[in-house]
Design goal:
alpha+beta, 5 strands, HIT-like_sf, 4 helices, hydrolase, 5-stranded antiparallel sheet, HIT family hydrolase
């Protein structure tokens, strides 16, 4: 497969699909290998690699979905801190050639920002169970 996120978008049966919500332009999904409970990625449906390729409409859509995701996680899981970010370029630690924003909830007594985005640890959390819970939160919100 050329792009796993395009496989998610196209609902390819060979690709694990952890979609929580879709808008006309973007997809909100649980990260397949979450660093923390509630680790979400938001990406445009259109296959692009560079941040500069985002249209104004795509950027605004991702922004609005980010705001809603943060609100849901704050309300439903009492999350009080987040890391938001993109891994841009091959030296950034990104492993998927399709732009996507990470939302990583942060909890007390954890490692810091660099530990998460330098890919130095993985927290075991069953992503499909998390997906079902978060889909329900989206419906309720």
């Amino acid at each position: 497969m050329d792009c796993i996120l395009c496989g998610v978008r196209d609902k390819d049966p060979l690709v694990p699909n952890l979609t929580i919500h879709e808008s006309e332009l973007s997809i909100v999904s649980v990260n397949l290998f979450p660093y923390n409970p509630g680790h979400i990625i938001i990406f445009p449906k259109r296959h692009i690699i560079a941040y500069e390729e985002l249209t104004k409409e795509e950027a605004e859509d991702i922004h609005l979905l980010t705001q809603k995701t943060l609100s849901i996680l704050k309300q439903k899981w009492a999350v009080q801190g987040f890391n938001l970010g993109y891994n841009l370029g091959k030296n950034s630690g990104g492993s998927i050639p399709h732009i996507h924003q990470h939302i990583v909830p942060r909890f007390p007594n954890e490692a810091g920002f660099l530990d998460v985005f330098a890919n130095t640890r993985v927290v075991i959390y069953e992503p499909f169970g998390m997906q079902e819970q978060l889909k329900q939160f989206w419906k309720e919100f």
